[in-house]
Specification:
mainly alpha; ribonucleoprotein; about 110 residues; Large ribosomal subunit protein mL54; transit peptide; 3 helices; single chain; ribosomal protein; Ribosomal_mL54
């Protein structure tokens, strides 16, 4: 009796977890800023300037929340193949330089 009940519970929990994962994939993640509005950002460059403070999330432009989203950036790059190729070449060149520097130390 215990094994049958255990199997049913396991199947239910697996089905529930699949539903939760599908819902998480379908809904876009909500990005919130890491500091509350009005927090000083300690970015003052000029002595005479005022200290910048954090704004409300809705006061920032929409593109700001997509900068760190790699899927959004990849979609944007796929729309412009020249930029994508340039990024690929830059990455390959950087890797080659790192490998040459490593080999020169041996």
């Amino acid at each position: 009796m215990q094994t049958i009940l255990g199997r049913i519970l396991t199947r239910r929990s697996m089905a529930t977890s699949k539903i939760i994962l599908q819902q998480a994939k379908n809904s876009p993640p909500l990005v919130a800023s890491s500091c509350p509005a009005g927090t000083p950002l300690n970015l003052q460059i000029k002595k005479s300037g005022k200290e910048p403070v954090a704004l409300e999330d809705h006061e920032y432009p929409e593109w700001l929340w997509k900068v760190l989203d790699q899927n959004a950036q990849l979609k944007k790059l796929q729309q412009d193949p020249m930029k994508l190729r340039k990024k690929q070449l830059r990455s390959a060149n950087r890797d080659k330089i790192k490998q040459n520097n490593f080999l020169s130390e041996i």
